[in-house]
């Protein structure tokens, strides 16, 4: 099921990149623009790789920055992401409460981490 979600995310990313092609045109003020994605666990690695391939295929002028939740990823995956040449920023998980197990909706655990 989770692999299906990763594939669906990859497909949605491709469709969105096709739709928003005007954002891939070189502009004068590209210095402070980038595509950001959050990699929270190893199940999302195929989605990140699909995103990178889509951005390269579309000839994006903006770099991709991968926010890595390093305590959730193996050293091998972190090394693979670094070796691919992506800009990487390690981040810590942000929880809405002091007790991570007290979340009402476990599926939203990493939603707060996007606030980095």
From TrEMBL:
Highest taxon listed in the record's lineage: Eukaryota
SUPFAM superfamilies reported in the protein's UniProt record: Nucleotide-diphospho-sugar transferases (SSF53448)
Family annotation (InterPro entries): GNT1/Glycosyltrans_8, Nucleotide-diphossugar_trans
Protein's UniProt name: Uncharacterized protein
């Amino acid at each position: 099921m989770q692999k299906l979600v990763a594939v669906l995310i990859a497909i949605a990313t491709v469709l969105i990149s096709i739709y928003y092609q005007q954002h891939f045109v070189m502009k004068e003020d590209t210095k402070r623009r980038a595509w950001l994605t959050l990699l929270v666990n190893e199940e999302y690695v195929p989605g990140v790789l699909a995103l990178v391939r889509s951005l390269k295929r579309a000839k994006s002028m903006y770099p991709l920055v991968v926010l890595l939740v390093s305590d959730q990823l193996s050293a091998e995956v972190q090394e693979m992401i670094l070796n691919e040449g992506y800009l990487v920023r390690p981040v810590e998980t942000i929880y809405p409460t002091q007790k991570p197990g007290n979340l009402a909706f476990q599926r939203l655990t990493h939603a707060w981490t996007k606030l980095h």
